């Protein structure tokens, strides 16, 4: 017994096939029930989200003959946050003949996830990765090519093989436009009903099955109930719980959280990826952080002054022998190319020692002087020109002349709604895909693997597994007057009314910023029992204050951006508490989760496989204010847990 | 720095709008233009006023949501820069800055600086795609694409669908946007089978959606944050003539 959570029954993935990992997906597809084409037209699927996951799923389901209703909060499905992904997408094509294979991608992903992901899921991801590239090329995605006309590849995030496909620094944009165009084609054909500027605010459950959603039209404020035979959430990640992150401003947890409140388990909420190469904050006006591609670390050298006293001096005045190239010093074999979590934590450590540079001492140098000397300015420009330009545009500093300043920022969330092998949550008929689910990355995601997972889920996995569920449909038709429908609608209306009535004296953003600071301080790059305990208290107090002092201007029946934000922040406040409790309960360091109490004598992460080799799936806070923990044991039959070492 | 902004305020699609002047004090030159509006909005809210509504999401110049006409120029004074990537260091202390929504028949104002751009999606629906249902694709290396074509297709495909080109065009024409998509898909071998119908259908759709005709003024390319060149419109026109002559 403890003050924060209750331990419940284990949770089991009943859809997972066993036997040889290579044929599990094949066998699952074969065992799944099919829906004949004539029946598909009678079945409706709601897809919330139009990013890589939701866009690809909506298009594919519509092509298969289902009736699809799609929702996004932006004014067009093309603007989903996936559009911002830069670096690339992995696939085990082995076009480079450098020893890559499905098995190697599987192995790297399980290991990269620090042995906290399911082998079956990861193997399937690696298998379908090759189909994704074929699909995208067929849609006309203009990937980078070599002079012979074949696709170019690069190595990304420290992998030893070149398996990353890319389109300059805009891979996400090009992949998303491919999915978006496929969607628009289906919209034109009348197979998808598109509802842009519509926000899902509640899930409708009837007879234990997910049967619809309550949405708010963000232009008129009208609340409607939408029905379907199954609901798919593809609503993205929740990095914005930190207020400052590299996510788009609108990214939120509301769709997932509403489902969680109604019974869907939320797994591993504390697994957050903090990206080492972002542009540091410039002041209190800061509204988001900008990622600089990781590829910069291939040629840039990271350093800070050896002495705190030198930190105020311009970089040029610090002599070579007074610089500490700390990554090269601590990790001689990987140097500046250590994985994201390690690079981020090392930056935090030197800044905590008072050796950070720039405003507030929250930055480290990423220096290209050597690269320019070695390769010439022209070569550096050809490789990184657009990134240097972006840096200069934002900071007003010229990175050819003075070193860039970088600092870690929240980038991706590995946690999400718990799903089984079929990507179905603990609520029958509710499927979760893309960054919104918890499935494939364990405690840490490898670079270029989120785009792969989003498209794998949407193009290839979900459209197969959902048949098995829909084969039992169509389900009884619903009416506005059915009790669960009336209730879900009332929940939304009451909440909006309450938010508007408080009329306090603090803005929504001020609460969001404060929550973000608590999360960053105590549930960021390094976590401790003491800090997390404190954070839970602070968040609970902040939540109370929010519901008594927030000021939301305007009405519900109009375009009201502060009302939208207020609803999202209210959910972030609950999620933040759960993240801290999850981080508190996991008394080990793994992947993106570093517990101060669990480190080796030389300060590296220490996992405890004996105690924590499980996914932590949480049930929503009970009446006593405590969430219930359900553990899903993880078994490693192929890739045996080992310790990561980058020294 | 201290500045004044004169912002278009319009409470709903059918209400009349007007420019309203606000003081913004002590704003950092490192703040972005949207962060300056954020700061202003925080004050408006606490004073009991209605904050300014505006579209934005990525704030990285890639989603195409942000859309402000600043001092008469779509996306403001900096070349090849979206509103969200414009920083206050490009303005001076004491400046008075006008901020208005996109104005075009096909982009009606919803509220303040927020406009309705679903007409762009309609153009894509009409043919801005390659029909390749999931699961039917051959191996990605089955058809090599000359690097030159792939690169040029990519350049055209970087259009973010923001609509600045339409806002800047005296005719409210969407030709640059449509030409970017026609060029992207028309340069890829996979895009050839639908090339003729695509251009015919997309041009029809832009007329139907209320966009104006193109008279080659070139204002669109001037403001395009992604540097989509005017020459692509020539390419579109030539594709169109070829397509019409065959049909
Ligand atoms: C700057 C940046 C760079 C990145 N670069 C890479 C990279 O190089 N390679 C890589 O693999 N990954 C990268 N990632 C990660 C990757 O982009 C994301 O994980 C991935 O795109 C998520 O896709 P998604 O479809 O799950 O969700 P999203 O693209 O976030 O889409 C979410 C959708 O849900 C909708 N939505 C959300 N809530 C609601 C609601 N309540 N009601 C209605 N609609 C809602 C939104 O409108 C949107 O359409 C990057 C991420 C960032 C931030
Ligand atoms: S062509 Fe340029 S201005 Fe027009 S929508 Fe595309 S990116 Fe925006
Ligand atoms: S907010 Fe996305 S382009 Fe400006």
From TrEMBL, chain A:
Membrane topology of the entry: Peripheral membrane protein
Major location category of this protein: membrane
Protein EC: 1.3.5.1
Record's protein name: succinate dehydrogenase
Active-site residues annotated for this sequence: 340
Taxonomic source organism: Actinoplanes aureus
Coiled-coil features, chain-numbered ranges: none
Domain of life: Bacteria
Automatic annotation (TrEMBL), chain B:
GO molecular function terms listed in the Swiss-Prot or TrEMBL record: 2 iron, 2 sulfur cluster binding; electron transfer activity; metal ion binding
Domain named 2Fe-2S ferredoxin-type: residues: 18-103
Keywords in alphabetical order: Iron, Iron-sulfur, Metal-binding
GO biological process per UniProt: aerobic respiration; respiratory electron transport chain
Domain 4Fe-4S ferredoxin-type: 150-179
Cofactor(s) for this UniProt protein: [3Fe-4S] cluster; [2Fe-2S] cluster
Gene3D superfamilies: 3.10.20.30, Alpha-helical ferredoxin (1.10.1060.10)
Keyword Iron annotated: yes
Xref: Pfam families: Fer2_3 (PF13085), Fer4_8 (PF13183)
The keyword Electron transport is assigned to this record: no
Family, similarity comment: Belongs to the succinate dehydrogenase/fumarate reductase iron-sulfur protein family.
Protein name: Succinate dehydrogenase/fumarate reductase iron-sulfur subunit
Biological classification of the source: Bacteria, Bacillati, Actinomycetota, Actinomycetes, Micromonosporales
């Amino acid at each position: 017994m403890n003050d924060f959570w209750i331990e419940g029954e284990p949770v089991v993935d009943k859809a997972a096939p066993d036997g040889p990992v290579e044929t599990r997906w094949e066998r699952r597809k074969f065992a799944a029930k099919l829906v004949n084409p004539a029946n598909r037209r009678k079945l409706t699927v709601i897809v919330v989200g139009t990013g890589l996951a939701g866009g690809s799923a909506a298009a594919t389901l519509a092509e298969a003959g289902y009736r699809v209703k799609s929702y996004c909060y932006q004014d067009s499905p093309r603007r989903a946050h996936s559009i911002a992904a830069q670096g690339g997408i992995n696939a085990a094509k082995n076009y480079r003949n450098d020893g890559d294979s499905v098995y190697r991608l599987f192995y790297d992903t399980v290991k990269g996830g620090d042995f906290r992901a399911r082998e079956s899921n990861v193997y399937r991801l690696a298998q379908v990765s090759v189909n994704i590239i074929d699909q995208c090329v067929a849609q006309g995605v203009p990937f980078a090519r070599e002079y012979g006309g074949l696709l170019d590849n690069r190595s990304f995030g420290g992998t030893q093989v070149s398996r990353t496909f890319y389109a300059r620094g805009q891979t996400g944009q090009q992949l998303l436009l491919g999915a978006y165009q496929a969607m628009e084609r289906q919209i034109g054909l009348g197979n998808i009903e598109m509802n842009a500027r519509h926000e899902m605010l509640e899930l409708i459950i009837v007879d234990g099955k997910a049967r619809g959603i309550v949405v708010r039209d963000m232009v008129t404020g009208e609340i409607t109930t939408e029905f379907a035979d199954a609901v798919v959430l593809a609503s993205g990640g929740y990095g914005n719980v930190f207020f400052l992150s590299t996510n788009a401003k609108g990214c939120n947890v509301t769709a997932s959280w509403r489902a969680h409140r109604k019974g869907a388990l939320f797994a591993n909420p504390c697994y957050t990826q903090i990206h080492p190469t972002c542009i540091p904050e410039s002041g209190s006006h800061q509204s988001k952080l900008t990622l600089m591609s990781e590829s910069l670390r291939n040629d840039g050298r990271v350093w800070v002054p050896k002495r705190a006293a030198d930190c105020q001096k311009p970089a040029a005045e610090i002599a070579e022998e007074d610089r500490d190239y700390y990554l090269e010093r601590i990790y001689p074999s990987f140097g500046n190319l250590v994985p994201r979590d390690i690079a981020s934590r090392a930056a935090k450590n030197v800044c905590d020692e008072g050796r950070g540079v720039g405003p507030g001492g929250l930055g480290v140098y990423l220096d290209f002087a050597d690269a320019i000397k070695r390769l010439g300015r022209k070569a550096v420009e050809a490789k990184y020109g657009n990134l240097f330009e972006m840096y200069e545009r934002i900071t007003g500093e010229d990175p050819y002349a003075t070193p860039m300043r970088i600092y870690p920022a929240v980038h991706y969330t590995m946690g999400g709604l718990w799903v089984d092998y079929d990507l179905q949550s603990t609520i029958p008929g509710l499927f979760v895909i893309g960054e919104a689910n918890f499935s494939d990355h364990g405690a840490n995601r490898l670079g270029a693997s989120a785009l792969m997972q989003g498209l794998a889920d949407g193009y290839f996995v979900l459209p197969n597994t959902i048949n098995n569920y829909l084969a039992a449909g169509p389900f009884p038709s619903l009416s506005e007057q059915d009790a669960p429908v009336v209730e879900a609608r009332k929940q939304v209306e009451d909440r909006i009314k309450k938010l508007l009535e408080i009329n306090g004296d603090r803005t929504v953003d001020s609460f969001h910023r404060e929550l973000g600071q608590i999360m960053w301080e105590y549930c960021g790059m390094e976590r401790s029992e003491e800090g997390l305990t404190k954070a839970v208290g602070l968040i609970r107090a902040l939540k109370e204050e929010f519901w008594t002092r927030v000021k939301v201007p305007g009405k519900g029946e109009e375009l009201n951006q502060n009302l939208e934000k207020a609803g999202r922040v209210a959910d972030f406040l609950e999620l933040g508490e759960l993240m801290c409790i999850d981080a508190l309960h996991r008394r080990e360091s793994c992947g993106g989760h570093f517990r101060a109490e669990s480190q080796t004598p030389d300060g590296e992460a220490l996992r405890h496989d004996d105690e924590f080799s499980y996914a932590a799936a949480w049930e929503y806070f009970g009446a006593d204010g405590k969430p219930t923990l359900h553990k899903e044991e993880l078994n490693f039959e192929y890739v045996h847990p080992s310790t990561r070492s980058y020294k | 720095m201290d500045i004044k902004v004169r912002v278009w305020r319009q409470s709903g699609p059918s209400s009349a709008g007007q420019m309203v002047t606000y003081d913004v004090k002590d704003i950092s030159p490192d703040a972005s233009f949207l962060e300056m509006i954020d700061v202003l909005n925080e004050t408006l809210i606490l004073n009991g006023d209605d904050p300014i509504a505006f579209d934005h999401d990525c704030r990285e110049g890639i989603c195409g949501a942000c859309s402000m006409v600043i001092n008469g120029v779509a996306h403001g004074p900096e070349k090849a820069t979206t509103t969200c990537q414009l920083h206050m260091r490009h303005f001076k202390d004491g400046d008075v800055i006008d901020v208005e929504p996109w104005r075009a028949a096909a982009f009606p104002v919803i509220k303040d600086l927020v406009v309705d751009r679903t007409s762009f999606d309609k153009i894509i629906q009409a043919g801005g795609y390659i029909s390749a249902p999931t699961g039917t694709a051959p191996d990605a290396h089955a058809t090599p694409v000359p690097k030159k074509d792939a690169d040029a297709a990519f350049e055209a495909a970087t259009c973010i669908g923001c609509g600045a080109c339409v806002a800047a065009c005296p005719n409210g024409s969407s030709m640059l946007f449509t030409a970017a998509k026609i060029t992207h898909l028309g340069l890829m071998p996979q895009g050839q089978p639908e090339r003729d119908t695509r251009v015919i259908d997309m041009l029809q759709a832009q007329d139907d959606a209320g966009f104006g005709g193109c008279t080659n003024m070139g204002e669109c390319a001037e403001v395009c944050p992604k540097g989509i060149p005017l020459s692509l419109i020539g390419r579109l026109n030539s594709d169109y003539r070829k397509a019409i002559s065959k049909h």
